Amino acid sequence: MATFFSLYPSTSSSLPSPPRTPKLQFSLLKQNSTCIYFKKRSLYVNSVLSAETDSKVPQTVQTFWQWLKDEGVVSAKTPVRPGVVPEGLGLVATRDVAKNEVILEVPKKYWINPNTVLESEIGNVCSALKPWISVALFFLRERFREDSKWKNYIDILPEYTNSTIFWSEEELSEIQGTQLLSTTLGVKEYVQNEFLKVEEEIIIPNKQLFPIPITLDDFFWAFGILRSRAFSRLRNQNLVIIPFADLVNHSARVTTEDHAYEVRGPAGLFSWDYLFSLRSPLPLKAGEQVFIQYDLNKSNADTALDYGFIDSKSDRDAFTLTLEISDSDVFFGDKLDIAELNGLGETAYFDIKLGQPLPPAMLPYLRLVALGGTDAFLLESIFRNTIWGHLELPISRANEELVCQVVRNACKSALSGYHTTIEEDDKLKEGGNLSPRLEIAVGIRVGEKKVLQQIDDIFRERELELDELEYYQERRLKDLGLVGEQGDIIFWEPK
After folding, report:
1. What distance in Å separates the CA atoms of residue 340 and residue 337, rounded to the nearest whole number?
2. pTM of the entire structure?
3. Are 99 and 290 within 8 A, CB to CB?
4. Mean pLDDT of the region 124-138
5. Strand, coil or helix: what is 315?
6. How many CA atoms within 13 Å lie on the side-chain side of 333?
7. Could you tell me the sign of the dihedral formed by the alpha carbons of 266, 272, 276, 282, in that order?
8. How many Cβ atoms are within 10 Å of 116's Cβ, its own excluded?
């Protein structure tokens, strides 16, 4: 019987998810030691400068804005423009904007998605590739073409973000011991392997389509751009880049995600098309920055990997426990059957967030994994349809104690892997003047440690209550009317 603990952030787009690489492994019988954008410096901007009024706005951005005008994507009625903001670039209101007012619309012909690739000159050689790889190759090819239709857009894209995939070895050492480090290294290995494969099968055999050599660094750039800028909540769109719309920044002040829509509308003087429509989730005054919510469900590890920032809200701090029924368990088949009947499997992932209770299914699954000895009778087929209800409550003192011991030992082992304490990290945060990446690193590691400490506290308190808990046999005797008012067992003697 074994338990694996790892980080597995989810992603709603067709971009690859970080691999489930276990950080820690524990045996319930015998323990064994064994698994992104700029940090927001301001959530509210009173005054920003637009592309048409500020000389600080890069010339590439001004050129891009003019291109959008020439293409009819924006007009004098468009209530937002690119502007210089604390995050770098963002969208700012040119007039007062009401809550839920449409601030921009981008016709489908200006979207970049797998269909865009299929209709391009590299469509034939990319048709069998994973969607994100085909779009990445499209970006790289267009990036090196002087006559590209997308040149004005690609020219405003950053060379890198603060996503951990772009960190140096020295910077990555600051997240030593974290699940984020394990995930980042797994993603980097995955992207490198995909590059080597596509280089051999697509890039080199088609030099007429890719005349300029594409390097691994180029491929990582494209991956980072897609990971940080893709929209994924549109109908039938799992991976789509929306130029202009992707300038909008994130804020924790926005607590809803229903701001992006796919609608039918005029795309020209005599044409109609699908439009990407973006509404402002907050009321704005002229000169204020537009913000949206990138994803309410993402942890700080997710946002550090995807965008290169972390959120100040404590419920973004998380640690993922990955639990597994060991295939060496003599009751493996029975336990797997029970887990699957209840929507779980051989491996189960539980995201624990700071300040929030444990996921409802976590304790039953732990008790199932630990089940053995004299408690194993519950695994018999006659209990198959009722056992999960029993597992929602303590089974026996031995089972509950084993669960507590293993989880607490796991937390202690994980906490020993960090090179700083919570107190040391808190002092660094209070001192300020941290670089953006060090600020992310400190925030991630202190967040993970606080969640691990929270988990340890929950099971430490559980251990102290073991003698007071009511277990299966006591509940069963009560159901049969064999326990008296004082909790004493009633023995019936034959007459």
Report:
1. 5
2. 0.84
3. no
4. 96
5. helix
6. 3
7. positive
8. 20
